[in-house]
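stage 2 :: seqdesign
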């Protein structure tokens, strides 16, 4: 499964500079549903015996991957919102602040208290792991709900950034399907050997 994603990155990914990989022809703008279902299957295969009750992601680019994973695990998924819906009351939501390095902004993410409870065992899914701020925001939400974090599943991990270490320091298992060791616009992507 991981090979499918690496092959697709090699074929259609564009290394913009030594830090940013463009994957918007198949992963986060135009989307290849067969590829996404393969990623969902890979996450489901890995976490299937861990009694996951819900998949949690952050809008927008995590949603289709979370959907595929949740469908394969036969459980619901929830996406944290970057702008609270008009129906979300202040006391009715869990909130975390997420700083985006690529965009240089901080945003509040919210999840209704109705959809994560202390009974839940949560698998967090996202498209990219860079500095880990999005994942740490989702982890904060899960902990506010006193739910269990089973692990974090990531499509593309930029292993030269600190995200994996920050999550592992929290005692959280990270499964990344493609781990980028380095990127170069001239020579392309190099993967972490596993
Ligand atoms: P972090 O959460 O790991 O700290 O990452 P960071 O702040 O650096 O990333 C902010 C946004 O940029 C995230 O999307 C993330 O998925 C995306 N991103 C990070 N690195 C790359 C990259 O190399 N290539 C691409 N294409 N995207 C990257 P977001 O702002 O939450 O937006 P959305 O697309 O989910 O709406
Ligand atoms: Na994202
Ligand atoms: Na994104």
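stage 2 :: out
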């Amino acid at each position: 499964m991981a090979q499918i994603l690496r092959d697709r990155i090699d074929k259609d990914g564009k290394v913009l500079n030594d830090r940013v990989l463009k994957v918007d022809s198949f992963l986060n703008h135009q989307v290849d549903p067969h590829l996404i279902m393969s990623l969902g299957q890979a996450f489901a295969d890995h976490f299937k015996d861990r009694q996951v009750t819900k998949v949690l992601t952050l809008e927008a680019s995590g949603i289709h991957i979370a959907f595929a994973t949740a469908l394969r695990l036969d459980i619901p998924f929830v996406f944290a919102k970057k702008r609270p819906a008009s129906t979300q009351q202040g006391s009715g939501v869990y909130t975390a602040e997420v700083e985006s390095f690529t965009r240089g902004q901080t945003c509040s993410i919210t999840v209704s208290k109705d959809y994560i409870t202390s009974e839940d065992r949560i698998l967090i899914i996202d498209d990219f792991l860079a500095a880990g701020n999005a994942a740490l925001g989702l982890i904060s939400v899960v902990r506010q709900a006193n739910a269990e974090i089973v692990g974090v599943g990531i499509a593309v991990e930029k292993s030269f950034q600190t995200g994996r270490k920050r999550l592992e320091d929290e005692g959280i298992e990270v499964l990344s399907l493609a781990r980028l060791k380095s990127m170069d616009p001239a020579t392309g992507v190099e993967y972490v050997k596993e």
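stage 3 :: structure notes
- The first helix runs from residue 2 to 12.
- Helices lie at 2-12, 33-47, 63-73, 133-144, 163-169.
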